[in-house]
Amino acid sequence: MKVKAVGVALALVLLPSAAFANVIFPALILSDRLLAWWIIAATIFIEAGFLMLAFRLPPVNALFASLAANAASAVVGVLILPYAGLYTEIAVNKAGLTTDVGWAFSPQDWAVAFLLGLAINLVIELAVYRFGYGLKLGTRQVALITAANVITVGMAVLSIAFIPSHLY
Question: Interior CA angle at 135 toward 125 and 78, to 5°?
Fold first, then answer.
């Protein structure tokens, strides 16, 4: 019985990867880049600094809170971001909202991928801070955590243009 459950679980995890094998779009590329070890490391430290400011946490507590929130964000976000990006690509094309030169890989497409990555990370991380750590989220805290995520997701998006994936 357990073997069957493991088989079903593996199929649910691996089949989406096979479905995306020949389809490429900015949110999928961003999903991969957000999982680069150096992006993760930089993100944990950058966001820990913002957590110290937002919640007045000691450095070690901020580092562990950042680590926990980013672990949750990575696990859930790696599943949500590619699908959100794919559905956005389909919706934009069906709605006829393409640019003169097409939508795929246009600056607008990259902006949408950035906003999707930002929104997904932000919702997951805020939930971890609020429900996992019991921290109160006021306007100041949400603004600082948003700023941290703008920096870190922006760093990932910009790195795609300047650092080829085979170098990390």
Answer: 10
Contact of 45 with 64, CB cutoff 8 Å:
no
Rounded to an integer, what distance in angstroms lies between the CA atom of residue 82 and that of residue 19?
Answer: 11
Q: Kindly report which listed range (21-35, 68-82, 138-152) carries the lowest average pLDDT score.
A: 21-35
Residue 141 has pLDDT above 60, yes or no: yes
Quote the CA–CA distance of 109 and 92 in Å, as a whole number: 9
- CB-CB contact of 83 with 28 (8 Å): no
Among residues 67, 45, 68, 61, the alpha carbon closest in space to that of 152 is found at 45
For the cut 60, the answer to whether the pLDDT of residue 8 exceeds it is no
- Whether the per-residue pLDDT at 151 is higher than 70: the answer is yes
How far is 107 from 113, CA to CA, in rounded Å? Answer: 10
Burial class of 18 by CB neighbour count within 10 A (0 to 12, 13 to 18, 19+): exposed
Contacts of 120 by beta carbon, 8 Å cutoff, 6+ apart: 73, 76, 77, 80, 81, 84
Smallest Cα–Cα separation from 124: which of 59, 82, 68?
Answer: 68
Q: What is the pLDDT of residue 20?
A: 46
d(CA 76, CA 6): 19
